[in-house]
Amino acid sequence: MELYSFMVYSWTAAILTGLACSLIGVIVVTMGLSFIGVCMSHAAFAGALLGIILHINPVVCSFIFCFVVAGILGPISDRSEIKTDTSLGIMFSFSLGLSFLFLPMIPGSKSEGLRFLWGNILTVSHNDILIVGIVCLLVLGFIIAFFKEIQILIFNRTLALASGIPAKIIYYTVLFLSGAAITASIKAVGGLLVFALIINPAAAAYQLTYDMKKLFLFSSIFGILSGCAGLLIAFWLNIPAGAPIALSSVAIFIISTIFSPKRRPCAKPQTRILQ
């Protein structure tokens, strides 16, 4: 019975983690916020380490830390002349610095801290599944509720603002949901590699289509495939699943690029945004 539960939890985590990260990844990639995955993954890792030091639930502390970083990123991007990628780079260096500061401060063995760095999908619990499931529903709900607004915002932010679309609210929500998806996945994939599930499935989907609905569909399929393929490799090699999941997502991107219709000489760029 324990073996059955262990297998169910692992496969469920692989599917939900791949789905949550890949869906929010479509918005992140098409809005040109790809670096947010790297920034938030290190913020989540720093938060987990702080939780271990303070004897607070590391996952809860990761959520809080990511939300704080997201709350700082938004105003920096809106109220200064600094470009978004620059502000992301600043927060990335801040999070990375805190991670290296907190890791030696963990009393005794550093194995618990390193577990959040590398991740291990084979050790997820019922509560971990519940958290990533809730985040997955939140991401799906956001995409369904604001699908047309997201399309217009990606197409032209100035047009979105002129049309009365709450661009700032959508932007902030993307930041928070990115942090939530990464934090919910950190125990399974690890803080060092979880950003691969944000970027690679969406980038692979973008090689195959310009249509937003198909982008979400293909990205979610690729995210789930990455999680399941990585888990199979982890079972086979008896290693943590983070690295195999990340490498599987890279392999899917390479295959998508090779067979991309956009590589054909007759292919013409098109943008299927306003439908």
Strands, helices and their partners?
Elements: H1 2-30, H2 35-54, H3 58-79, H4 84-102, H5 111-118, H6 126-145, H7 147-155, H8 157-162, H9 167-189, H10 195-206, H11 212-237, H12 242-258
Plain-language structure description:
The structure is a single chain. The protein has a single domain, classed as ABC transporter involved in vitamin B12 uptake, BtuC (Orthogonal Bundle), CATH 1.10.3470. The protein contains twelve helices and no strands. It has helices at residues 2-30, 35-54, 58-79, 84-102, 111-118, 126-145, 147-155, 157-162, 167-189, 195-206, 212-237, 242-258. Helix 1 (2-30) packs antiparallel against helix 11, helix 2 (35-54) packs parallel to helix 4 (84-102) and helix 5 crosses helix 9. The model is unreliable at 271-275 (pLDDT under 50).
Give the structure's gist in a few sentences:
The chain is 77% helix and 0% strand.
Q: Which structural traits does this protein have?
A:
mainly alpha; ABC transporter involved in vitamin B12 uptake, BtuC; 275 residues; 12 helices; disordered C terminus
